[in-house]
Amino acid sequence: MRTILHIDMDAFFAGVEELRHPELRGKPLVVGGNGDPNTRGVVSTANYAARKFGIHSAMPLKEAYRRCPSCVFLPVDYAEYSRISKEMMEVLREFGCTIEEVGIDEAFMDITDSPLGTPEEIGRKLKERIKEKAGLTASVGIAPNKLVAKIASDLEKPDGLTIIPEDKVQWRLAPLRADRVWGVGEVTYARLLKMGIKTLGDLAEADEGKLAAEFGENWGRSLKERARGIDDSELVTEWEPRSLSRETTFEKDTAKMLEIKKEFEWMSEDLEHRLKKRNFLARTVTVKLRYSDFTTLTRAKTMERPTAEREPIMRAGLGLLHKFPWERPVRLVGLRVSNLVAAEQAQSPPPDAALF
Ligand SMILES: [Mg+2]
To answer: Label partner for 235 (CA 20 to 30 A): which of 24, 81, 152, 263?
Structure first.
């Protein structure tokens, strides 16, 4: 039995814009095209205040303007959204689970048997961390498979956490519109409606012969299975970290090695935890310093033996500090481990050793 989590940021583009324009928070806001409602663009995201006017994604900007002339219209800024998206995915990786990134603002996580807590605890923690790091809310759905997890994350938007255990799947799905499952778009839904099938419950109970006649045998059967919440598709990508890092910005720029050393203590401890959680050893340690004038320098050292222990990581970091120029105060320090290898692989003895 699997436990799959789906996370979906709430009105993502609009959320990011509200972050950088706090004065717009709570006001109806539409992000789309070049931000000019007189042009041919469409709505990418409308915030929840704008949705109250019936504005939704893919609606022409002109129509959105007609419905809500007092709405604020902003252009799409992918660079900024992908920057925040990276932060969000970074948070997901902290949990050490297999991840499938679905799009800029959603992902699946396989939390089956995760030692981090119950599914509900993990869901809450994840939402909290994203709020902390990106300042945005997300909705989480947890279910026995991807299909139902995705439906679940949508049920209590925004800021939702919806858990659908195996024995409640059919019951939760039955009253929903049949186009809530993936693969049922406008066209298929219209055809279903003609057959008198409105809800997923209707579809789950529908006559197999009639479905086959309308959609062909395979697609008909597949539709029925989806309506029952059956899905055994795997997560598509397995995430493997290429590096892990921590950095910190000092409240006041510092020229004191002692202060930096203190930071390295918690950073190397943190890196040790994360390496061990994922069962990796690191070969390379990198130190990054950003000076008061914002120039940034890095120095790296590859260790003789790969390690997951804090001591050698910290020692390597401290050794590297001497390779930096010290004529300017430092505003940020970072510690990174990279060149990661799987722990089992690194620890297994060389073939010859078996002879002794
Ligand atoms: Mg979203």
So the answer is: 81
